[in-house]
Amino acid sequence: MPRRRKFPDYVEIRVPVYQPPSSTLELLFEGKTLEIAKRLVRYLKKNGGMFKDEYQEALGIDGTDKVLYFRVVKKLLALGMIYEDRGMYRLSDRFSERMENLAKMWKFEIGKVAELW
Fold first, then answer.
1. Which of 41, 48, 83, 88 has the smallest number of Cβ neighbours within 10 A?
2. What are 10-23's pLDDT values in tens digits?
């Protein structure tokens, strides 16, 4: 029986101070992992989903990038940007719901409760 996948307890999000990022993925990834994440999201948007074992053909991942791919998928799953549905990965809007709740919590924290309702 396979082991249950472990997700990280937290994920660091780098918030740029001077200029906004061109993509949300730039807040989470950098370098080769950013490239893999962008290819994955582009593929999921185009095709609506991807089977778990289809990543090598679909994204052109070779032997050395497998570890990076699985790190990207693990982080995207933990954040709710993608979800797993019957052996397929699909895009999810759970991340945006979390960020919306975070924004509402900040409004409450600074006392702008009237703007929430």
1. 48
2. 888 888 889 888 88
Please report the domains of the chain, with CATH numbers, ordered by start residue.
24-115 (1.10.10.10)
DSSP annotation string for the chain: -PPPPPPPS-------SSS--SSGGGGT--THHHHHHHHHHHHHHHHS-EEGGGHHHHH---GGGHHHHHHHHHHHHHHTSEEEETTEEEE-SHHHHHHHHHHHHHHHHTT-GGGT-
- What is the average pLDDT across 39-52? 93
What is the reported pLDDT for 113? 77
